[in-house]
Amino acid sequence: MEIKKFTVFGGGVLGSQVSWQAALHGVKTTVYDISDEAIEACKTKHQAYAQMFTKDFGIPEEQVKRAFDFLSYTTDLEQAVADADLTSESIPEDFEIKKEFYQKLSTLLPEKTILTTNSSTLLPSMLAPFTGRPEKFLALHFANPVWAANIGEVMGHKDTDPQVFDTVVEFARRIGLVPIPIHKEQPGYVLNTLLIPFLEAAQTLYFNGVADYKSIDKTWMISTGAKVGPFGIIDLVGMNTVYNVLMLRYKQTGNKTILERAQKIKEQFIDKGKLGVATGEGFYKYPNPEYQSPGFLK
Ligand code: NAD
């Protein structure tokens, strides 16, 4: 099935990137959000991405300007999905919000529309019952930033139609992603199944006083040839997300050590405005973190 019209629900951090990425690859894309303010914020982000793509990435100005011809914005959900072939949902990571959203959406959709969620922690099978079309529902999970960390993890649930799955894999490729087909439902997909325990292990070493964070990063960088170690990655991911993941794990397991760690992240970083790369400081100071300096690995 050819995807002619694509709709993105939510124009926040990820929705603004997903819609930009699709429009830049020549896909007619509509952004839906709940208020005029949210739509304006998304437009502002798109302008900033346009600047970044021309100035920093050297993409020709005409090509970047052309992306705007493929973009439209609305706060009217019915209008947003009229004639949509494929949708991508990036609304807040909250089960009740998503459930209510899909229930409302299910009454407005054309029959052909395929639905994908970008949820990082909710499995497709948890949301499928509220979509009214479980066979056309699956996850297409993007990484942040979409264009640089350009994987598209495609994960269905047991009732997802295999043809629908393949259509989404093809679409991911078309918009410049490397599709990662996931054959079984897996909390955290591939990336976070690897990354979360890795970052937790690094935190255990640090918070238990086994080694300082620079030594831990050096160990990883020297021995694997990676350009960044776990604490550099934590700064990239951002302290709010690290905190939210720890709190979610605490709620799931009741493990007090995880709660204490979340509290330390909050006190030592979040409360001091040190959110990571986004605010110029986390474990390291930006834009020139010490781990990128020539002497760091000596
Ligand atoms: P965000 O808070 O930046 O954006 C959420 C957007 O949804 C906002 O623009 C908000 O106005 C809008 N919204 C709020 N309620 C809504 C509703 N009822 N209906 C429609 N829109 C509504 O959040 P985000 O970081 O972009 O995350 C969104 C989704 O993307 C989550 O499911 C998250 O797990 C997933 N995700 C996030 C990242 C990341 O790095 N931030 C990476 C991959 C996936």
| List of distinct ligands in this structure | nicotinamide-adenine-dinucleotide
Fourth CATH level, the homologous superfamily of the largest domain = NAD(P)-binding Rossmann-like Domain
Radius of gyration: 20 Å
Give me the secondary-structure category.
alpha/beta
Q: Globular, elongated, flat, extended or rod-shaped: what is the shape?
A: globular
Mean pLDDT: 96
Count of all domains: 2
> Roughly what percent helix?
40-55%
**Strand order, biggest sheet?**
3-2-1-4-5-6-7-8
- Low-confidence stretches at least 5 residues in length (pLDDT < 50)? none
What is the compact description of this entry?
The protein is α/β, with parallel strands linked by helices.
What would you say this structure looks like, in words?
36% of the residues are buried. The model has no long low-confidence stretch (mean pLDDT 96). The protein folds into 2 domains: 5-182, NAD(P)-binding Rossmann-like Domain (Rossmann fold); 196-291, N-(1-d-carboxylethyl)-l-norvaline Dehydrogenase, domain 2 (Orthogonal Bundle). α1 packs across α2 (36-55), α8 crosses α10 (230-237) and α11 runs antiparallel to α12. With 298 residues, it is α/β, with parallel strands linked by helices. The chain is 47% helix and 13% strand. Strands 3-2-1-4-5-6-7-8 form an 8-stranded mixed beta sheet. It binds nicotinamide-adenine-dinucleotide. Nicotinamide-adenine-dinucleotide binds at residues 9-15, 33-34, 38, 90-93, 97, 101, 118-120, 142, 144.
